[in-house]
Amino acid sequence: MSVVRIGDRLVGPGQPTLVVAEIGINHNGDVELAKRLIEAAAGAGCDAVKFQKRTVDAVYSAAELARPRESPFGATNGDLKRGLELGRDAYAEIDRHCRRLGLLWFASCWDAASIEFLELFDPPCHKVASPCLTDDALLDAYRRTRRPLLVSTGMSSSSQIDHAVHVLGDAALVLLHCTSAYPATAEELNLRVIPWLADRYKVPIGYSGHEVGLYTTLAAVALGACLVERHFTLDRTMWGSDQVASVEPQGMARLVKDIRAVEVALGDGVKRVYQSELPVREKLRRVNFT
What CATH number has the domain bearing residue 220? Predict the structure, then answer.
């Protein structure tokens, strides 16, 4: 199985799990809040943060933008969507902040213009969000960047994943197992798909989780996830659609710590007798042979 380089990190079997804090739209359109989230992710030990980028008028129809929807930004869905978008100056601040803190950053782009926008910042990779997996034109725009691609597979059948992998051609891929429910229940996570994806596609497999709690993400690592992405917030009670399915800083720090412990505990798969076992063997085993 191949290993994919994301910035200065290697992603794949035998490598440390790349932990991504998905800030997404939890910044609520406020670059200062985004910077606080970046700082909290760095403090929790994350390797990277991820945002979402849309060209609102390209992604949504005029009718959808005009639909009534109350938010802090106004009375329509368009007011909300435009209010959540950060511009070039804000992303320049994000770029400087992440570089100062030693964090990788990238985004899931929902349209070709957003990919072109993100390219201005020389990202280490791009993220294909689950809803975009079946958009061949967008996949082709991603492929033409020649950057590594993290591809979420939520709400997608095996044939749709096959097709996306074919369209993306020779791109360096990390496929992310995902259940696109917010939050997802344990019964819907189906983590055994992780080794199935690894066997089917022969690329590194990650996990994008939307569940409440941390233990299932640790199980994903034990099953072979080489990259973990969890939505991240300072406070789950904050306003915003993704906050409730997000992890707070203390929980993220615990998750990173436990992932590192799981990596050590998994070992190398070679059966051996440890020095610490020898006194116990001498004391308890009645018959021994080599």
Answer: 3.20.20.70
Mean pLDDT, residues 81-108: 98
Q: Calculate the CA 229 to chain-centre distance.
A: 3
- Identify each DSSP E strand in the chain by its residue range: 4-6, 9-11, 18-24, 48-53, 68-71, 74-76, 104-109, 126-128, 149-152, 173-178, 205-209, 227-231
Full residue range of the structural domain in which residue 56 is found: 4-284
Classify residue 289: in a domain, yes or no. Answer: no
Please state the pTM of the whole predicted model. 0.95
User: Is the confidence at residue 290, as pLDDT, over 90?
Assistant: no
Segment 208-231 mean pLDDT:
97
Q: Does residue 29 fall inside a structural domain?
A: yes
Residue 201: name the closest of 244, 171, 232 by CA.
171
Q: Could you tell me if residue 290 is inside a domain?
A: no
Which tens digits make up the pLDDT trace of 115-141? 999 999 999 999 999 999 999 999 999
